[in-house]
């Protein structure tokens, strides 16, 4: 076990992804069981070797018996859409402090099984008292602020939706598979909250994802293809609320970026593919700007020019993201980052990709748009043991 965290010293050695979709008819706990089983098989790891468990669903407290595990610890955590990356960070911390050697980070929910008419969405802090309820309304304020400052247009938002659907349309297993859209389709979709239309918004889906985290040294002795973790960083947009800039920043990306990139020893120009948390179309626009792939205000035109597709400046959400792929919270982005680093991106694989940027976003801080942010940098997969 390394005595301190060096870039690449830890890896994701197992990836398990269940069917993703709406109204699958599978209970959440069974989704988590199937995801874990798939991750164990992918890594070539025996169930008894998993000695740490981090659940990322609120109902996962008593999972371990059903999952057949006997870990040294089992607990849940929640930071909204940043939870996935945070679970990996905490898995590394547990291994560093000698609490475990292999930690399973497991997600699995079935929200479409019980949400029906009248579902009101999440209430983020005191603004809910005045009718500002749900993530769409909160992110719409980001979008309107960006439009006011930089001239971003509805067509720019539509370009994000079209580009990500084009990726999903050729990736089996996504909600958008075989169903590309046009800017006209975006323009004609129902208005949800100004300026967002239906195709600007992601949809809840049922599904499970499991990751197995261990040291890269141990991973080299396993048959699975491990993906090294080059860097991790976090930030919280409440910092910008205190200065009155909360709507000018999608998140406190600067802090998260600085920590992760310094740990990895890389720069933005080293990134080959981006897997960004994308609940709404404004999110990839503002994140690409914040990370420095383009100047402030140029994220919309970057998408409109086709620079976020495979072969473009920065291929982004090559699996369709949450907008057109599936919504597994922050695990959607991690899955795509791992697939790209393994060369398993199918029709939208980025040739020669060696470094992936993965982001997470969520866990409101009691005031609208005070989300936490998480940055993960992944490296090209290492071959498994012969």
UniProtKB/TrEMBL annotation:
Domain of life: Bacteria
GO MF term (any one): acyltransferase activity, transferring groups other than amino-acyl groups
Pfam family, one: Thiolase_C_1
Start and end residues of each Thiolase C-terminal domain: 253-367
InterPro entries given in the database record: Thiolase (IPR002155), Thiolase-like (IPR016039), Thiolase_C_2 (IPR055140)
Keywords for this protein: Transferase
Protein name: Acetyl-CoA acetyltransferase
């Amino acid at each position: 076990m390394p005595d301190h965290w060096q870039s690449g010293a830890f890896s994701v050695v197992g990836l398990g992804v269940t069917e993703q979709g709406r109204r699958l008819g599978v209970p959440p706990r069974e989704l988590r069981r199937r995801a874990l089983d798939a991750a164990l098989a992918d890594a070539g790891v025996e169930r008894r070797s998993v000695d740490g468990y981090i659940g990322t669903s609120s109902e996962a407290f008593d999972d371990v018996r059903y999952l057949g595990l006997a870990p040294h610890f089992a607990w849940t955590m929640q930071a909204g859409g940043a939870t996935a990356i945070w679970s990996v960070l905490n898995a590394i911390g547990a291994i560093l402090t000698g609490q475990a050697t292999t930690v399973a980070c497991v997600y699995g929910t079935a929200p479409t099984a019980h949400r029906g008419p009248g579902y009101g969405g999440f209430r983020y802090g005191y603004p809910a008292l005045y009718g500002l309820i749900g993530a769409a309304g909160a992110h719409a304020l980001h979008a309107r602020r960006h439009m006011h400052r930089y001239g971003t247009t509805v067509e720019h938002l539509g370009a994000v939706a079209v580009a990500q659907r084009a990726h999903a349309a050729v990736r089996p297993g996504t909600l958008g598979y075989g169903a590309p859209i046009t800017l006209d389709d975006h323009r004609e979709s129902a208005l949800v909250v100004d300026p967002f239309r239906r195709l600007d918004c992601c949809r809840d889906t049922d599904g499970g994802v499991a990751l197995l985290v261990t040291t890269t040294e141990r991973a080299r002795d396993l048959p699975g293809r491990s993906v090294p973790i080059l860097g991790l960083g976090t930030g919280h947009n409440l910092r910008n609320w205190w200065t009155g800039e909360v709507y000018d920043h999608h998140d406190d990306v600067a802090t998260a970026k600085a920590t992760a990139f310094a740990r990895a020893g890389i720069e933005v120009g080293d990134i080959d593919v981006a897997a960004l948390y994308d609940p709404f179309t404004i999110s990839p626009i503002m994140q690409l700007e914040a990370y420095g792939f383009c100047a402030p205000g140029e994220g919309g035109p970057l998408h409109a020019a086709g620079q976020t597709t495979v072969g473009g400046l920065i291929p982004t959400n090559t699996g369709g993201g949450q907008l057109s792929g599936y919504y597994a919270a922050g695990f959607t982005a991690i899955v795509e980052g791992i697939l790209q680093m393994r060369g398993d991106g199918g029709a939208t694989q980025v040739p020669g990709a060696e470094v992936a940027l993965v982001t997470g976003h969520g866990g409101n801080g009691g005031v609208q748009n005070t989300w936490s942010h998480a940055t993960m940098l992944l490296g090209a997969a290492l071959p498994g043991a012969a």
